[in-house]
Protein: Protein UPS2, mitochondrial
Organism: Trametes pubescens
Amino acid sequence: MWHKYPNPHCSHVLSIDVVDRSVDPQTGIIRTERILGCKQNAPGWIVRFFGGSEDAFVREVSFIDPATQTATITSVNLSLSQFATCYESIRYTPSPDGRTTFAQTAEIQARMTIWRSMADKLENWLVQRFEQNAQLGKIGFSDVLRQLWEAREQQLAQQA
């Protein structure tokens, strides 16, 4: 999971900074907090109306549970959060057939009740951007997993 970025499918993610990583001594759960720096190519009207730039920052917190082989990742935007929030949750769990189940949800909400039409426009753009990035992220992560699997297979073949 920590190899997800950078990848060619998610070129909008420009930087990844690990803020904290710890292991719970009782459960073995690994908790990692990261800040992702992104360039979102926001429409000009968003940059003009809300200020700032196309640079955006996202806080990501992940939990890896080795006992259940489950990964849970949550993220929330830090940039322009006074105007809108995008809270995302991703969960990877093993399925009985030996595959991995992927579940993803997002809650996107503009916080500007005074300018409802502008808030609606902002929410619509955020939903479209989220859908694009979510698809690219899933493809990119699948590529990372494939590469790790192939490297493991090569290692096992060399040991045999």
Notes: The first strand starts at residue 13 and ends at 23. The beta strands are 13-23, 30-39, 55-65, 70-77, 84-94, 100-110. The chain has one domain: 13-150.
